[in-house]
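Inputs:
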Amino acid sequence: MGFYCTVTLPVRCPFCGTEDERECQTKELQDIFLFEHWRVGDNILAEIPHELRCIAGCAQPPCATLDTFNGKSFTRDRYFTVVLKLDNGVITGEYEALAEDPT
Ligand SMILES: [Zn+2]
C-alpha cells in the first residue's frame, strides 16, 4: 500500500448513497508526511492545492462483495474517489465523491 495519510469524515457513497464516517486515504502528501491522520478543521500545514484526492471504501451491502481467500470469506469494500476541499490548508469537510474506481 505504501505511505499514505488519512482524513476521517462523513462521506456519502456515490454508488449507494449511504453517508458514513469514512477513512479517506491519500498518497498526495507522501513526500511531506507519513501516516498522518486528520479530521475536519485540521490544518495540514502544507503548501498544497485546494483539493486533496483520496480513496475511500464503502462496506454497505449493496457495495461490498463477499469474497474468499485461502478458504476464508471476507467482505471486500467498494472503493471510490473522494476529492476533499481545502481552505488555506484547513480541511473544510466539503468534498466531492466520484463514482469511479480508483484502483
Ligand atoms: Zn456504497
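The mean pLDDT is 91. Flag for discussion at group meeting.
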